[in-house]
User: Fold this.
Amino acid sequence: MTRCDQVRLLPSPESQKKAHLFLQKAEQDEIVLAKLRGDFDVGDEILGFHAQQAVEKRLKSVLAFHEIEFDRVHSIAYLAALLDRHGVDLPACRDQMEELTPWASSARYDNLLDGILDRDGIEGVALASREWAEKIVGAMSWFSAYANAFKHFARYTELDHLMLLVEGDDEGAVVHLTEDGSVWVSVLDQLAAFNLIGVVDLEGEPAEPLIDLGEYVTLETGLVGIADSALQSVAGRQALVVARMADDRSFHWAHASRSRLTNGVSPPDSLSKLLLLIDAIASEPVGPGGFEKTAPDVRFSVVDGVLRLTDLQVELLKKQRDEFRERFGRDPGPTDPVFWKRSADEPEAMTPEELAKEVAKGEELGISEIGKQLAAREVLFEDQMEGASEDDEEEKQSPYVEVNPLPLILVLSNAASMEGDLDARCLVAAVHCWMEGHLAAEGHGEAAETDAEMPAPPFPDPEADGDRLNAIVLDAVARFGYKGNGIDAIAYASAIAWRAGLEAGEACGGCAIGESSGAISRAMRRGEMRIEFFPAPRMASSGQPAAE
Amino acid sequence: MSTVAEKAIIERAGRALIKAVPSPAKVISVPSPGGLEYRFVVIEQDLPERHREMVRLSRILGELLIPADVVVVSEVELNQERFQKGSFIHDALRSGEVIAES
Assistant:
């Protein structure tokens, strides 16, 4: 069962620095411990002190990382209880860790202590505390660097909300980036068949997660369930989902302008269905020699109306969920209805007609005003599904609906992993994002084939645009420096350049691009092609991945 | 000088500790260097396993989220060291305050 360990704000750079400092200091204690553990001329109080210090500092590292205030104290029990109280899982050896507390004080208290140190045991305790702390602080720092990058990216491209699901070897995290700049993370200890889902909210209010993902994310529900849960957290907003499959590392994306809420009526071409398709594609074996398309490319584009939720409506949804649990003794699943027949033994959705009748009965049935509104919307949505309404057309006119962030993410990813100094990396990112911005302008959905000498529009012109481009790069480097391994600066430069390119594109009467960026780039920009972000795994002649 | 909030925490700790140890016992609150944390000395009549007892009492305060150092001494040790200038027990008795007793 995959579960959500916590939802919390990502730490500030200062807190991350403090957390890493504690980790480094703990490492020093462990080095002393490792060197002296076998030397029986060294007393227990010395080894016990360093073992306690290593554990204490690692607990403080995680506390600092989670931005939990703590007193300067040696009590492992206090530090552990503080973490526990904030919902942070502790290592299995918590008891043994707490037993180290008295060793911190032995020198201060005239060696009053009479304990005998378990010299063999402390190594395991120290190791467990190290693995635990580094897993949290180390892994989260990695997420944090990318989170910051995407935050800038989202801000300057005016994509309001970005949510990523990132998988490590045996863990993952959901990173929510919101319009107001706050970042939320849910840590998952297992993931199924994919390793990244991003939900980019293309419009709407600040997108604070509305529902605790941990209540919904299960291994059994897999990709569809998690994507569904992800969308629930930005319920009612336009969103773009990016999924990276674990097995072939390809990226897929879907645009959805209506999330499914907890378990609402699922349109025939719903996001879930598309994600099922992704799941099916990804589960196909990868052929020898690299990636092979095993299913037709699919453009995942769904524009099926928008269902907006107010806070009160969200409350109602939660109430319906609680009642569902009480009535049926389990959590509602992706296919369960929000409004179910109260007389039925199993969850059974009301028909639109029944729902309309319920609404008409109103207070008599205990459906509040909020419920009426929500139910009415559900009926309205059903009506909309009968045929595209004028409202749908209006939604399509949203200025950011057509922004396809995947090429930008591709540029960002490449520049972030490049060798070289930061100026050069920012410049590469800025030039390419300028081009993407240019191509995103109206009428530039596809670049034309040309033999024109490069660089030429849609790339920035070295003479006409060079000063602006340089200013973008210099500004990015000056603002962010090497923070986050330079990713912040690269993201900032990319985003600003994208905007500049968009302006250039809007003023452009027609432009060209070289042969080298022909069909593949166009397909990618149209959302018709999978993108490979990483080299293909080495394959043995059998077609199976080569053993190391 | 303890603030009202600090006094409340100290009293709470005293109550928790005295309740957790066999009677007769005393809990002394000792000022900590730099005021970084709370320090308590618990005096118990019999103390067969000091380390284990310190861990146990630290857990009790930890669960109450009281950031404290707990030292446990026996009555015998107290009587041996109480007049020995410079010893921890001597200093604790001189600068500390009995906050709970059973």
Summary: Chain A has three domains: 11-138, 158-337+369-396, 405-526. Residues 11-138 of chain A form a domain with the Four Helix Bundle (Hemerythrin (Met), subunit A) fold (CATH 1.20.120.330). The first helix of chain A runs from residue 13 to 36.
